[in-house]
Design goal:
alpha/beta; binds shikimate-3-phosphate; globular
Length: about 180
């Protein structure tokens, strides 16, 4: 039985990588945010608006517990998932964890064009997004760094780059004996 969690900052490409990796490893794929949106019939932004971040984190924790029982699956988590409650322990106990890591400058470039559906950064200006990400990532890395595998990625701006990333993660997973 295989269960693999992809963790890492917003915009790093967890979902894109996860979908492709799931095909390569013949596993099913779950995006935790999409799982939440279809379960609650609301977008992540609507949940933040209605229940605040605290309410969202409760829902996220419950949903993570549900998906942590599914077998033979790759789960792309939200950027904050590992950083609340005992979510990181749960993931490390129930599967293999992969921290998909990128430089703040690459994350800022990606998030500047895709920030609208992400309530934590939706209102950041072009000037404030980079310092915000740098600080936020510093706060979050102690959680992310507890992953079984830390995998550095560049901007995933070509199919070749994406394929290299996916193949590289698959190789690292192979080396793990747990
Ligand atoms: C969040 C990341 C988002 C989503 C929510 C909060 C975060 O997921 O869960 O907006 O706290 O970093 P992505 O990492 O898929 O953008």
């Amino acid at each position: 039985m295989k269960r693999i969690y992809l963790i890492g900052y917003m915009g790093v490409g967890k979902s894109t990588i996860g979908k492709r990796l799931s095909k390569l490893l013949n596993l099913s794929f779950i995006d935790l945010d999409l799982f939440i949106e279809s379960k609650y019939h609301k977008s992540i932004s609507e949940i933040f608006e209605e229940k605040g971040e605290g309410g969202f984190r409760e829902i996220e924790k419950k949903s993570l517990q549900e998906v942590s029982e599914i077998e033979d699956v790759i789960i792309a988590t939200g950027g904050g998932t590992p950083c609340f409650f005992d979510n990181m322990e749960l993931m490390n106990e129930t599967g293999k964890t992969v921290y998909v890591k990128a430089e703040p400058s690459d994350l800022a470039a990606q998030l500047q064009i895709s920030k609208r559906k992400r309530p934590l950064i939706a209102n950041k200006t072009a000037d404030s997004i980079f310092p915000f990400i740098t600080n936020h990532l510093n706060e979050r890395e102690p959680f992310y760094n507890r992953a079984d595998i830390i995998f550095n990625v560049n901007k995933l701006d070509s199919i070749t780059e994406l394929n290299n990333t996916v193949n590289g993660i698959a190789q690292e997973l192979n080396k793990l004996t747990k």
